[in-house]
Amino acid sequence: MNKFIDLNELSKYANTQKVLDFKFSTDMLFRCTSKQYANDFKKGKFRFNQPEFWIKEGEMGNKGLGDSLEGTFLTTTFNDNSEYINNLKKNNDIEYFVEDDKLYFRRKSIKKLYCFCLYGLNDNSYKEKSVDRFGKEHYYSRIDKSYFSSFSNGITKEKYNNEDEKRNVVVFINNPSLFYEKVRQFFMKLGVGKENIIISPIEYVNRQENSYSFMPFPYELLLKDNYYSNQSEIRIIINSTSEKLIKYMNDNKNIIDIGDISDIVDIYDYYFDDLLLEKDGNTLLFTLPFPIEEKLEDMSLHRLLTLFVQVLNDNLPYDTSLNERNEIIEFIKKIIKEKYDIFLSVENGQIKLSNFIGKEKLLDN
Q1: Is 97 helix (H, G, I), strand (E, B) or coil?
Q2: What is the pLDDT of residue 151?
Q3: How far apart are the first and last CA of the chain?
């Protein structure tokens, strides 16, 4: 790599700024996309992008998707006429531009690297606290609705059509480690060294401050402005320009195929409200984009029994009177009797099922 900096030549206007060495653990990954694209994603087929795309989007004013400062490694005042800056401007491998009275520098080659971005939910994401009506403390993560709206092209909740194959959806990846490994294996088969497959969280900083990133190329792609911090981004960067890689990407329109991943991917409708997530042991609980309206009559035996126990133990998330709970209990018993010909009763605090022999498999549904 060409040497661009000499510490003795750095402009007096530029303070240093360094990306940390991340050690991170990801609980869940998210990706906003269209339903049609999400269906391909479950098959393991998805498209990588290049920073030049995000740069153009940012220059056109689409700041949610785009970022005109992608890949810049130096920020200084627009009128910096120091010898170091003037020499840097003469380097043919570097481009520079002025934005909001700041002068930015970027290596030209970084714009061509293949990248993929996702929202990453990490162990330190659960910062909000609430106490339920039983006094139990809950710590949860909140993904603000503004994150989803920045990718939604202005669609509103009222106009959202959950039957449209082109509608916006959210892809949930529930096994990030397996997903990362499948991506690594794909690119390694194309001859990319493991050390050149970079998977890391983004570091959010004030890009308007005079600064210089000392991280080696292409780690400046892990720096983004604080404006984007709600994206909590995990970025995959392929630091290679090999002919084999470029030929594959050109032949396949930048779409890679890591094999079927439907067992670790779920697709949900778009969120127009905040997404709340709580980690309970090894279980991740989260709010749904739209309420599920399900009649008791349509529930499986397993669901009805689960609800019966929940009501019987007064373990509902909201307050109910004894009379209200008794009404629900009697209604559930009635449905189970009529639908499954099973008699449900409670004796000495124990639930008893009569006429259940031979119907055990009903609990598997």
Answers
A1: strand
A2: 79
A3: 59
R_g over Cα of the chain: 27
Q: Give one DSSP letter per residue of 151-171, joined into a string.
A: TTTT--TTT--TT-TTSEEEE
User: Rounded distance, CA 8 to CA 12, Å?
Assistant: 10
Q: Is 116 helix (H, G, I), strand (E, B) or coil?
A: strand
- Region 150-179 average pLDDT: 84
Give dist(CA 65, CA 55) in Å, integer.
9
CA distances to 297, 323, 338, 345 from 352, rounded to whole Å, are 21, 22, 17, 5
Token pair listed for 295: 């009649």
Supply 179's token pair: 């997903």
The partner residues of 137 in beta bridges, in order of sequence, read 131
The pLDDT tens digits for 127-143 are: 889 888 888 888 889 99
- Mean pLDDT computed over 223-249: 94
Residue with the two structure tokens 């490994």: 181
Whole-model pTM above 0.85?
no
Of the two residues 193 and 353, the one the predictor is more confident about is 193
For residue 31, give both structure tokens.
């990706």
**Residue 293 gets which letter from DSSP?**
-
CA distance 207 to 72: 9
224: its two tokens: 């983004």
Residue type, 87: N
